[in-house]
Amino acid sequence: MTSHTTAAHHSDLIVVGGGVLGTFYAYHALRRGLKVTLIEKNSKPMDATVRNFGQVVPSGLDRDWQVHGRESLRIYKELQAQTELSVRQNGSVYIASDEEECTLIEELHQINQDAEYESELLTPEQCRIKYPNLRTEYCRGGLSFPQEVSVNPRRMIHHLHDFLRTQANFESRFETLIQHIDPVRSNLIHLQTSKGETLSANKVIVCCGAEFQTLFPENFRTSQMKLCKLQMLRLSPQPQSVLPGNLLTGLSIRRYESFSECPSWNAIKANEPTDTFAHVWGLHILFKQESDGGIILGDSHEYTSADRPNELDFDIRSDVNNAILMEAKRIMDLPSWDVEAFWHGIYSQTSHPSGIHLETIFPNVHVTTGIGGKGMTSSAGFTQHHLTELYND
Fold this sequence. Notes:
Pfam families: DAO. Keywords: Flavoprotein, Oxidoreductase. Its cofactor is FAD. By secondary structure, the chain is α+β, with helices and mostly antiparallel strands. It has 2 domains: 8-67 and 151-224 and 352-392, FAD/NAD(P)-binding domain; 92-146 and 225-350, D-Amino Acid Oxidase, subunit A, domain 2 (D-Amino Acid Oxidase, Chain A, domain 2), CATH 3.30.9.10. Helices cover 31% and strands 27% of the residues. The protein has helices spanning 20-31, 63-80, 99-114, 124-130, 153-164, 209-215, 217-221, 250-253, 265-270, 277-280, 318-331, 375-390, and strands spanning 10-16, 36-40, 55-56, 92-96, 120-122, 141-145, 149-150, 170-174, 178-185, 188-193, 198-206, 225-235, 246-248, 286-289, 295-298, 302-305, 339-350, 357-362, 365-369. It is globular.
């Protein structure tokens, strides 16, 4: 292959994938003084990074990943002090609906006390003071995490890209598809783009599952990757003070990884029915109110192997949306339940116990993907940690 590489096309690090994971790799690499190019096949991120709630909730992660989530909180707040990213610190609250869920939040509170992560148990009355629209018959207690933040997922990543473009040694190449990556030649990695350019770098990180599959199909085939399809919706704008912060409810308590480390978890899960609509479609109910008063509500979970993506069709199921709304109405009395929009998102995740797919394809060519539903919460902290490993600090 003929190389058209020039000095202008060389970077210390090329990151393939402009979503939250890849963008934070670029951010931390710039802070190391590296020359960085961020490559994205679309004109802007269009997948999981912009199709989620924007809840940054380390409280939902297991103890290993909570370390990265807590570091992410620090990084988000640090960045917000420098530029507008839509970061808002209004905390997170888990609302328990029965005695089993109350037991789990009490046990998680103790776990977080031991880990020196601030949390506070709330009485039903304290929950209703914070959320006056909360239905009395639903709420049996709550667990608050005041340090947690939220972002607007459709804006944050674009603000972060704009901020990076103000930094020295940064280049972004959007609407650029990488078609081939050559192993090391003359101590450099060479990347061929769909525009006929050849870029070079000392190190490459591929952060997108689609590019992983295209560029390294055999590695992808054996990677234990899964896809998860989620449905969520947005309620029309209403008074902005209805739901401050991130609101997570009973089905979330029964689903999130952090609660699986509670002493009572196994016994409680063993008695749960598996034939309910909520269980079959992986429903749990999250509320997140945006600055304009609109409320993001959801979601569902449907899985398939990553090498069979067509098994997750493009349909939005009305029965799933109706079930989400019915359960939400059991929890809240909102001023309006008018649905403004609904959509689905698909993210990739790994079956590996580590919770992320990390693979070195060639020397200095690395794949990082499959972070699952913890990308917005964990990427900022995890990428900082992983770069330290990659550069052998």
